[in-house]
Fold DNA replication and repair protein RecF.
Amino acid sequence: MILTELHLHHFRNYQDLTVHFNPGVNVLIGHNAQGKTNMLEAIYVLSLTKSHRTSNDHELINWQEKSALISGTVEKSIGKIPLELQFSSKGKKAKVNHLEQARLSQYVGQLNAILFAPEDLSLVKGSPALRRHFMDREFSQMSSKYLYNAGQYRTLLRQKNKYLKQLKYRQQTDRVLLGVLSDQLAAFGAEVIIARQHFLKHLEGWAADLHQEISLNKESLRLEYVNQLKVSDDTTVEEAYQALFKLYQDNEQREIEQGTTIYGPHRDDIRFLVNDKNVQAFGSQGQQRTTALSVKLAEIDLMKEQTGEYPLLLLDDVLSELDTIRQTHLLTAIQNKVQTFLTTTSLSDVARQLINEPTIFEIEHGTLNKEEVK
Ligand SMILES: Nc1ncnc2c1ncn2[C@@H]1O[C@H](COP(=O)(O)OP(=O)(O)OP(=O)(O)O)[C@@H](O)[C@H]1O
């Protein structure tokens, strides 16, 4: 898919801007604090309805204003689709084809974007929460069912945890309601677990090939889904539900004593194995970076496989974080395949040579100038 046009109105430091993009590589270049990341963020928000930098939508609205608008046209194999998001103190409204969507979950999936920022290089060495967030964010874009199930799971988890605390401090005594909450939680949790198993298996296939290539055939990569149920590719949702519900029943007293839910996909993780060794514990920084890069690039192919369309790729200041070999791999892997937006304060010679006919936009104080490419 291609984002042909973007319009920003009172979004962050952009007053009123309409920009037409290159279907290939778009370079957003400028000094610090001019609005490069804000532009990538706008595309990301147009894709997922929320920002990767803040959970407070109000921050997206220009400080002098009361509302903001992001709109754009996405071109897919089925045709052109106009998308629009409005933010105000009353909340946000999402429109597809000029029609307001009753639920944001109906909107997500129209425009898919993969964001790669320097912090993604710590996907491997960062906390398990980072990897769970990664799974939820990426798999939600590929499957509205996943988005729904993960959302329901989160809501029920909050309810169950609140109830467990009330039982712990004896503000409640009725365990029947706890059983009902655990039953529902196990049902949505099982859906999330089986979907993660499925998506990670496919992601592994793509990532292993890329990793081998980037490491010049020296390393093999495997991805293991770490979960308390130890599911395999053959485990059904029903089996996972039964197993998870049993864990809740068997550990009811422990969960009450701890005032929190101990089992479920909110405790999952991903283990990355390079040449069969856990790269988080034993890998060099370079191996960890190669792993993160392979996994990010693999997402592009996974998304194409699952949705039939390539996503957009948003690269926020990552080139400067990668050495020449990894830069070369990244840039050759995306050329002529995915529409790419990359921010940088200066483009290295390597990148200039590798990028095919980019459009270069110079950003200064929330305005854009197109640079003629020499
Ligand atoms: N809600 C807002 N209203 C107005 N201006 C904002 C708002 N939010 C952020 N800004 C301004 O946007 C600018 C930051 O833009 P951005 O994060 O895109 O920088 P950048 O060009 O990516 O820089 P760097 O290279 O340092 O990452 C800052 O000047 C900040 O003050």
